[in-house]
Amino acid sequence: MKSVRSVYIHSNDSKVTRATLPVLREKLLAAGIEILPDPKQRPDMMICVGGDGTFLRLLRYQNFPDVPVVGINTGHLGFFQEFMHDELDLCIKCISEGDYSLQSHRPLRVRVWQKNQSMITYYGINDIVVRKNASSIVHLKINIDRSFVEKFSGDGVLISSPAGSTAYNYSVGGAIVDPRVEVLQLAPIAPMNTASYRSFTSSVLLPPDNTITIYPEYKFIDKMLVIVDGAEYQMTNMEKLQVDLADRRIRVVRRSEYDFWTNVKEKFF
Fold first, then answer.
1. Which residues are CB-contacts of 52 (< 8 A; sequence separation ≥ 6)?
2. SS3 letters for 213-236?
């Protein structure tokens, strides 16, 4: 891989991060790596210091950049973060010598149509959640491409990428997907199955060229909540929502010997 000679640093404000940043900057400069103050200056790599939430915010703030991103974990799980905060020397050695690999991910694209408003587009690397903006049952008509699949009733639905399969999707019983397999995953959240309502109860895996279209059914409330990688957006009179995989990629820096299933085992089992 390419040897890194310039970086941009994005971080949170945790106590561990504040202690890590000056040491990181000193070591980068000692290794001859320039620290750029603005990501528009096109650094060779972005460094994210924090947890997974900080990593997701960096992607969102920088509009899912094509510049490789390496994570230094000062948080908890750190599934995207490849190095711990006490592995700064190893991290700098890997990126300065080009001794790393790149894990490629296609973000999710969600497009929302509201009555008498322009279409809104959001991107997320992990997942999209569609639910009521209140603690009540949501009724959704779900299409996959041109085919009507079902009328879902329950707390909501979650659409995840392979990168997000180990996040909220895993908590609701969805499948863990190796990121080398490009799929969309549609998972129910607390589905209802009674004499009156029938909903799918397991996640569904779809090819990467499929589009999921959701039409909400309103009876007593006209507001929906669309959650993109944890960021909440309230929608009024939403007519439909479409989710597919975007025609762009983000690249996550991994060690040369990185193995996805070893990472899953260490983080979850």
1. 75, 77, 78, 79, 80, 81
2. EEEECCCCCCEEEEEECCEEEEEE
Choices 3.40.50.300, 1.20.1070.10, 3.30.420.10, 3.40.50.10330: CATH for 6-106+249-268: 3.40.50.10330
pLDDT digits (tens, 9 = 90+) for 162-202: 999 999 999 999 999 999 999 999 999 999 877 667 778 89
Q: What share of the chain is helix, strand, coil (3-state, %, to 5)?
A: 20, 40, 40
- CA atoms within 13 A of residue 133's CA, in its CB half-sphere: 16
How far apart are alpha carbons 77 and 51 in whole angstroms?
A: 7
Of 102, 9, 1, 6, nearest in space to 55 by CA: 9
Strand 6-11 vs strand 34-35: parallel, antiparallel, or unpaired? parallel
**pLDDT (tens digit per residue) in 129-169:** 999 887 788 999 999 999 999 999 999 999 999 999 999 99
Distance of CA 259 to the CA centre of its chain: 19
Residue type, 226: V
Beta bridge partners of 43: none
What residues contact residue 223 under an 8 Å CB cut-off, 6+ apart?
A: 132, 133, 134, 234, 235, 236
**3-class SS of residue 81:** coil
| Catalytically active residues, by annotation | 52
Which residue in 230, 229, 178 sits closest to 205, CA to CA? Answer: 178
